[in-house]
Amino acid sequence: MTTSTGSLETAPVASAAPPTAASKPAGPAGIPPRRAGRVRSALVSTLYALPVPVLLVILWDRGVEGAWLLPFGIQMEHLPTPYEVARRFADLAVGGIIDDSYSGTLWEHLWASTKRVLQGFALAAAVAIPLGIVMGRSRTVFRLLEPTINLVRPIPVTAWAPLSLLIIGFGDQSTIFLVFLASVFAILLNTIAGVREVPERLIEAAAMLGTRPARALYKVVLPAAIPSIIGGLRIALGLAWVILVVGETVGISTGLGAMITQAREQSRTDLIVAVMIVIGLAGFLADRLLMLLVRLIGGRRPLIN
Question: What is the pTM of this model?
Answer without folding.
Answer: 0.80
